[in-house]
Design brief:
This protein is mainly alpha-helical and 134 residues long. 60% of the residues lie in helices and 0% in strands.
Length: 134
């Protein structure tokens, strides 16, 4: 039985949706904090001096947050103003995470159906190199 069916039967969401919900909730709290609080200063802060390591750039928390916001259909520009209205931010996060989870589950189900259809339609006929029987 695939995981998508188990989660549907148990009426639970996937771990990706849970983590996304927690991340959005935490960002909403940080944006609403006063400017003197350390988490807000760290969230909006930038390094004045120093260099990043050579090679590929290391992902920052804000980079993964922007990717997750886009996956949910929330504009990254709205992150500074929308969480100030707590009820609208909470409902927006819940609908965004629910649509993300539905899209993810549908894509997994479609991927499995395509894989199963390809397996059943292609009959694997093997011919013996020595005797020629199939």
């Amino acid at each position: 039985m695939p995981n998508t069916d188990v989660m549907r039967i148990c009426d639970i969401t996937g771990i990706e949706a849970m983590l996304l919900q927690v991340q959005l909730r935490w960002v909403g709290h940080v944006v609403c904090l006063p400017d003197i609080r350390i988490p807000k200063q760290v969230f909006y802060g930038k390094l004045e001096a120093g260099r990043r390591l050579p090679g590929g750039p290391v992902k920052k928390y804000k980079d993964s947050l922007k990717i997750n916001l886009k996956a949910c259909g929330i504009s990254p520009r709205d992150i500074n103003t929308t969480p100030l209205h707590r009820n609208s931010w909470r409902s927006r996060c819940q609908t965004a995470v629910a649509s993300f989870e539905a899209d993810r589950t549908n894509s997994l189900c479609n991927k499995r159906a395509n894989r199963k259809a390809a397996t059943t339609t292609t009959t694997s006929v093997w011919t013996c190199d020595i005797c020629g029987r199939t």
